[in-house]
Amino acid sequence: MRADDASRMQRAARWLVRQHLERIASRPMPPGLAPRSIGEAYAVQDAFVALKSRTCGAVVGHKIALTTPRMRTLVGLDTPLAGRLHSRQVVRGPASLRAADYGRLLVEFEIAVQMAADLPSQRAPYTMQQAGAAVGAVMPALELADDRGADYATLPARGLELPADNAWNEGAVLGKPHAEWSGIDLAGIAGVAYVNGAIVGEGRGADTMGHPLAALAWMANHLSRRGAGLRSGDVVITGSLVSSKFPQPGDRVRFDAGVLGSVELQVS
Prior knowledge:
Layout: H1 3-21, H2 38-56, E1 59-65, H3 69-75, E2 81-86, E3 90-92, E4 95-97, E5 105-115, H4 128-133, E6 135-146, H5 161-164, E7 169-174, E8 190-195, E9 198-204, H6 212-225, E10 235-245, E11 252-256, E12 262-267
Parallel strand pairs: 1-10, 3-7, 4-12
Antiparallel strand pairs: 1-2, 5-6, 5-10, 6-7, 8-9, 8-11, 11-12
């Protein structure tokens, strides 16, 4: 990358940090800073994550977004997206948070895995079976994200800003890990989302790229192409089984992932 391009990526990252710190409503990035390719978008993410790590802690995992064609069409992109999780934003459930700490909080309902072995960068793509063999535990999870009041009608024109902004991730709430998971049909997991005890959505593990481990393999290969990899201990949230929900103060959110158990979040 040329020096002037690298400088632009850094300025774009600082602009994003300011938007978040000041809780400025979502708006298009300035033309001189907006990424012009998916490669530039991830370069901005790299810089943004490095700055965010100063207050939110080291990177301890990854998220996968846009795991369905419908969601990719919504933002005008043709590929799933990757983001990163920070140590101080990943907690065990049950958890609580304040809606006022976000521009506009959204929650997604996911199957998470924790790696027991590294998947380093390599030439050949990882298969779903290879990715699964490196998994140490599986658990239900709630992804925490902040769209800062984005106007979804404008997203197709600015879709590259989503990976630049770390795919909107602001953390995850993890349920109880299951180390003896190999006999569980992850694709067949029936997930049910509740808000205040009422069902607000249902889905299956197969809704994430056909299988949660297929999503994991996608992540391993995405990182491998960028000269990076998954590390033992990393947590990966593999995509939502249910459409995003926007909880309000006073809401209790729960995700029941069948044999994997459930995870809860109280919003104040």
